[in-house]
Design goal:
Blueprint: H1 3-13, H2 15-40, H3 42-46, H4 48-93, H5 98-138, H6 151-175, H7 181-185, H8 199-217, H9 224-263, H10 265-268, H11 273-286, H12 288-313, H13 315-322, E1 327-330, E2 341-355, E3 360-367, H14 368-377, E4 390-394, E5 410-412, E6 418-425, H15 432-435, E7 438-441, H16 443-448, E8 452-461, H17 468-477, H18 480-484, E9 487-488, H19 489-532, H20 534-542, H21 547-584, H22 589-620
Helix pairs in contact: 1-5, 2-4, 2-5, 2-6, 2-19, 4-6, 4-19, 5-6, 5-19, 8-9, 8-21, 9-11, 9-12, 11-21, 12-19, 12-21, 12-22, 13-19, 19-22, 20-22, 21-22
C-alpha cells in the first residue's frame, strides 16, 4: 500500500470529522472566488462608477478574507494534529520512519485542500450569477450583464489557496519532528494549560468591560474621554480594553460563577448537574483564549453587519428627510414628461447672508404662503402664521450635539436686517441641496427684505424612487452651473444604495464566512474533548445513567460552550452599535435585532451538529 493510498483511506475513514472543516473551506473559497470574479467582470467594468466601487471593495474584502482564512486553517489544523498524534505514534511504534509518516500527513492535507479548492471554484462559478444578482439588487440597479467564467479569477484563487494548503501541509509534516513518541501517545491527556482564577482578575475584567461599554455609549462630541484619546484613538482604546476584559471574563469571572453553582447543592445535586458543571468548570478555564477569540469575532461580525444593515434599512428615510421634493433646482422651468407628477411649482426665494457669532452662511428666505402651499402638497398638517419681524427656521441638518438652537434669538443679516426666531424645525419643505437652511417669513416682510431674488423649481412625483429617467431628462436640460445644484430623490437614493448596498453584500458574506469558521472551531474543539471524555461517560452508562440523561448533560454542556461567547459577543456589539447609532443619528434597533436573530439562528445550526456528534462519540465509547 502506497503512502498516497493510505492517506486517501485515512481521509475516507475520518470524513465525518473533516466534514465541517471542508465545508467551511469550500464556502470560503466560493466567496473569495465570487469576489475576484466580480472584480474582473467585463460588464461591471463597463460602468465606471459601478466598477470603481466594486473593484476597490472586493479587493479590500479579499485581503480581509484571506487573513481570516489563514488564521482559521492554522487553528483548525492544530486540532486535527492533536487528534491524530496517537495514530502517528502507532505508526512510529510499528517501525514507519518519521519522514514517511510526515509525507502521509502532507498528502492528506494536500488532498483535502485540492478537493476543497475544486469544489469551491466549481460551486463559486455556478453561484456567482446568483450572488451577482443579489449585489445588483442591493445596489438598486435594474439590469446588469451576465456573469462569465473568469480565467484571471481562477488563476488568482487557485494560486493563493494552493499556497495556503501547502503551508498547512508543511505544518502537519513538521509535527512529527516536534514531539517524542511518549508525548504523542499521551497527547489526548494533555489539555491546554488551565489558568488560575483570581478575585483581582475578575474585578479587573468586569471593570475593563464596564469602562469600554461606558466609553462606547458616551457622546462622541461631549465626552471628556473621547476628547482625551481623540476620535481615532478612543475606538482603538475601547477595542483593547474590551478584548482584555473578555479574556479575563472567561479566565476568572466564569470560574467564580460555575464554582458558585457547584456549591449550590439544591441545584447541583439534581440529576447530573454536578457532573455537567464540573466538566464546564474545567473546560471554560482551559478554553478561555478560544472562547474570548470567538466572542470578539462574533461581536465584530454582528457590529459590522448590523451597522451596515442599519444604514441600508434607513437609506430611504435619510434621503427623504433631506429631500422632501422629488426634484428641485435653481433657475427656469424645463419640459419633461408629466406622467406621475403630483405637483410642479415655481417659487421665488431670496438668498441671504447671515453674520452672527455662531455662523456666517448663506440661507434661503421663503414666503409664508409658499411654505403653507408646499407643506399641504407634502402632507404636512401645520400651517404657519408668522408675525412681522419674526421667522421660523427650517434646518434638516440640525443635530443638537453640535448645531446651535436659534429659537427665541435674533437672526442678524449682513445687510443690517434682523429676525426673531419664533420656532425651529428639523424638517423642511425645500430640499437641503440647493436650498440649505430656510428662513420662513410672512409675505409682507419677504417683499420688503433687501436681498437677491432667485427662481426655484420644485417637483413632486408619485413612485419617485423609480423616476431615474425623468431625473436624467431634467438634468440634461440644465446649464452647467444649475446641474451642480440639481437635487434628485431617485438619483440620491440610487447613489446611497450603490454604496451601502455593496457594503451590505460584502459584510453579509464575510460575516457568514467568519460565522462558519468560528462555528467550525468550536465544533473541532468540543469533539476533541468528547473523545477524551468517552471513558467518563462509559462509567456513567455502567452505573445506570440512561441515554436521555446523558444526552441532556451533553446538550447542556455544549450549550454553555456555544452560548457563552455568543451572549458576550451580542452584548459587546449592542454597545458598539449604540455608539454607531448615536454617531450617525439614526434608529437602527429593528435591523440590528433582525441581524442578531439571523446570526444566532445560523450559529444554532452548528450547536445542533455539535451536540449530535458529541453524543455519537460518547455512545461509541459505551
Amino acid at each position: 500500500m502506497t503512502l498516497f493510498s493510505l492517506a486517501r483511506k485515512n481521509i475516507q475513514r475520518n470524513l465525518s470529522n473533516y466534514f465541517l472543516y471542508i465545508a467551511s473551506m469550500v464556502f470560503s473559497i466560493v466567496i473569495y472566488f465570487t469576489f475576484v470574479t466580480l472584480k474582473y467582470n467585463d460588464d461591471l467594468l463597463a460602468s465606471q462608477q459601478f466598477s470603481q466601487q466594486i473593484k476597490g471593495l472586493m479587493s479590500a474584502s479579499s485581503v480581509v478574507l484571506l487573513f481570516f482564512i489563514v488564521i482559521f486553517m492554522a487553528y483548525s489544523n492544530s486540532f486535527f494534529m492533536k487528534k491524530r498524534k496517537k495514530e502517528v505514534a502507532l505508526y512510529s511504534l510499528l517501525g514507519v520512519r518519521k519522514q514517511k509518516i510526515g509525507l502521509m500527513l502532507f498528502f492528506e492535507n494536500l488532498v483535502i485542500g485540492f478537493v476543497s479548492l475544486v469544489l469551491g471554484i466549481v460551486l463559486g462559478f455556478f453561484m456567482s450569477q446568483g450572488l451577482l444578482m443579489i449585489l445588483v439588487r442591493l445596489m438598486g440597479y435594474e439590469v446588469v450583464g451576465s456573469l462569465t467564467f473568469s480565467a484571471e479569477a481562477l488563476v488568482n484563487t487557485a494560486g493563493i489557496f494552493a499556497l495556503l494548503f501547502l503551508f498547512t501541509s508543511l505544518q502537519g509534516y513538521r509535527v512529527i519532528y516536534q514531539f517524542k513518541l511518549i508525548d504523542l501517545f499521551h497527547a489526548e491527556k494533555q489539555g491546554e494549560k488551565i489558568p488560575r482564577a483570581s478575585l483581582l482578575a475578575a474585578i479587573l475584567g468586569a471593570a475593563l468591560l464596564a469602562f469600554g461599554y461606558y466609553t462606547a455609549s458616551s457622546d462622541i462630541f461631549t465626552s471628556n474621554i473621547w476628547k482625551l484619546f481623540t476620535v481615532f484613538g478612543t475606538p482603538l482604546m475601547v477595542i483593547g480594553v474590551t478584548i482584555a476584559g473578555t479574556y479575563l471574563l472567561f479566565h476568572s469571572v466564569s470560574v467564580f460563577v460555575l464554582t458558585a453553582l457547584k456549591k449550590a447543592t439544591s441545584w447541583s445535586w439534581k440529576g447530573l448537574n454536578l457532573i455537567g458543571v464540573s466538566q464546564l468548570l474545567y473546560r471554560i478555564r482551559a478554553n478561555a483564549k478560544s472562547l474570548s477569540i470567538i466572542a470578539i469575532l462574533s461581536a465584530t461580525t454582528i457590529t459590522a453587519g448590523g451597522g451596515v444593515f442599519g444604514m441600508y434599512y434607513n437609506a430611504e428615510a435619510s434621503v427623504r428627510h433631506m429631500l422632501p421634493n422629488t426634484f428641485m433646482w435653481k433657475g427656469d422651468a424645463v419640459k419633461f414628461s408629466q406622467e406621475n407628477v403630483l405637483y410642479n411649482e415655481s417659487l421665488s426665494v431670496k438668498n441671504l447672508r447671515v453674520d452672527n457669532e455662531f455662523s456666517f452662511f448663506e440661507y434661503t428666505l421663503l414666503k409664508e404662503s409658499d411654505y403653507n402651499r408646499l407643506a399641504k402638497l407634502q402632507g404636512k398638517d401645520e400651517e404657519l402664521h408668522i408675525a412681522n419681524g419674526s421667522t421660523v427656521l427650517l434646518d434638516a441638518s440640525f443635530d443638537e450635539r453640535f448645531s446651535h438652537d436659534f429659537t427665541s434669538e435674533e437672526f442678524k443679516l449682513e445687510n443690517g436686517e434682523s429676525f426673531h426666531v419664533d420656532k425651529m424645525y428639523t424638517e423642511s419643505v425645500l430640499n437641503f441641496n440647493p436650498a440649505g437652511t430656510v428662513l420662513v417669513v410672512n409675505d409682507k416682510v419677504f417683499a420688503a427684505t433687501n436681498a437677491e431674488s432667485i427662481k426655484m423649481q420644485v417637483v413632486g412625483m408619485d413612485n419617485d424612487l423609480k423616476q431615474q429617467a425623468i431625473s436624467k431628462e431634467i438634468y440634461n436640460q440644465l446649464a452647467t452651473e444649475q446641474q451642480e445644484g440639481f437635487s434628485s430623490v431617485p438619483q440620491s437614493y440610487e447613489d446611497s444604495l450603490a454604496t451601502v448596498g455593496s457594503l451590505l453584500f460584502v459584510g453579509s458574506f464575510l460575516g457568514l464566512v467568519f460565522l462558519a469558521a468560528t462555528g467550525s472551531i468550536i465544533y473541532f474543539k468540543v469533539l476533541t474533548e468528547a473523545e477524551e471524555d468517552q471513558s467518563k461517560y462509559a462509567i456513567l452508562n455502567k452505573i445506570g445513567v440512561n441515554k436521555k440523561q446523558i444526552l441532556k448533560t451533553v446538550a447542556g454542556q455544549v450549550a454553555v460552550i456555544f452560548s457563552a461567547p455568543l451572549v458576550v459577543g451580542i452584548v459587546h456589539s449592542a454597545f458598539a452599535l449604540l455608539a454607531f447609532s448615536q454617531l450617525f443619528g439614526m434608529d437602527i434597533t429593528k435591523p440590528v435585532i433582525l441581524w442578531m436573530i439571523a446570526y444566532s439562528a445560523i450559529y444554532g445550526i452548528y450547536y445542533i451538529f455539535t451536540v449530535r456528534s458529541f453524543y455519537k462519540i460518547v455512545r461509541q465509547g459505551n
